[in-house]
Amino acid sequence: MADAGAVKANGGRVALVTGASGGIGLELARLLAADGCDVVLVARSEERLRAAASELKGAYGVATQVVAQNLSDPGAAGRVKAAVDELGLKVDVLANNAGFGCDAPFVESDPARQRALMQVNVAAVVELCRAFAPGMVERGAGGILNVASMAGFMAGPFMSTYYASKAFVQTFTQGLHAELRLSGVHVTALCPGPVRTEFWNAADAGQTLLAHAAMGAPRVARAGLRALRWNKTLCVPGIVPKALVFATRLVPRSWMAYAAAALQLPKRKG
Ligand SMILES: NC(=O)c1ccc[n+]([C@@H]2O[C@H](COP(=O)([O-])OP(=O)(O)OC[C@H]3O[C@@H](n4cnc5c(N)ncnc54)[C@H](OP(=O)(O)O)[C@@H]3O)[C@@H](O)[C@H]2O)c1
């Protein structure tokens, strides 16, 4: 819900970041605030969002707003939009970053968790773009950064729905980028390789090889916002992830799937 009165737009740009309670989202919010944007922070953990909001207000003097919503609830994106409207804010930069993985053999996985994953990683991304992109187009300016993943370039056994959700975000973002090319609205998909955040433990994948090859979240967030500024369609931060993405063009998709399965194996044996 919106915390009316906590924010007063300073006349500058407003950025809305989902999944801003930690990890890449918090780094995106820090960078956007450092750049002078007022920020609207969205996630489930209200306390963590409030701590982030006061950090950003103190460090950068920007106005902040907390909108605590569970994006796996149908209608949550609409409630985020209503909260923003109620505050009289216009979103100039939308960072669709909230997301999570689910590391389990598909046949043993929890159907409710799979449904929540598709709602947060896919449906909420589309719904928030649909909610905020029209205003940007009308104003002839704005930016949408959708956080996909290197996982979107391949199939991922044991995290099949997660990898597929990121393929969706990537393809959807590429389409939107082309559609809005002449509108003044920048649209970019950020496709990081493994990043050191709470993501891996939340996905029950903390012991996998991938989890141990991670980059820092600040570097990933910086690369994403730089790419958005330049209106790049896709951004894959880091040399090794870039090389791996390049390899996906050369190696048959079925082989890539076996390689991805191997990277998840240590967890399965443990
Ligand atoms: N870490 C990686 O290796 C990696 C690699 C490539 C792409 N990514 C992508 O990067 C994005 C950010 O992940 P991260 O690595 O920063 O992970 P993280 O530290 O676990 O952060 C995930 C964020 O999403 C929020 N979130 C999760 N479920 C939510 C829900 N149902 N409703 C609202 N917010 C929710 C979390 O907040 P609450 O828990 O407070 O709700 C948190 O702020 C994700 O889309 C992820 O798929 C991560």
TrEMBL record:
Residues 13-198 form the Ketoreductase domain. GO terms for molecular function: oxidoreductase activity. Pfam families: adh_short. Gene3D superfamilies: NAD(P)-binding Rossmann-like Domain. It comes from the Bacteria. One of its GO terms (cellular component) is membrane. Keywords: Oxidoreductase. Belongs to the short-chain dehydrogenases/reductases (SDR) family. This is SDR family oxidoreductase. It comes from Gordonibacter massiliensis (ex Traore et al. 2017).
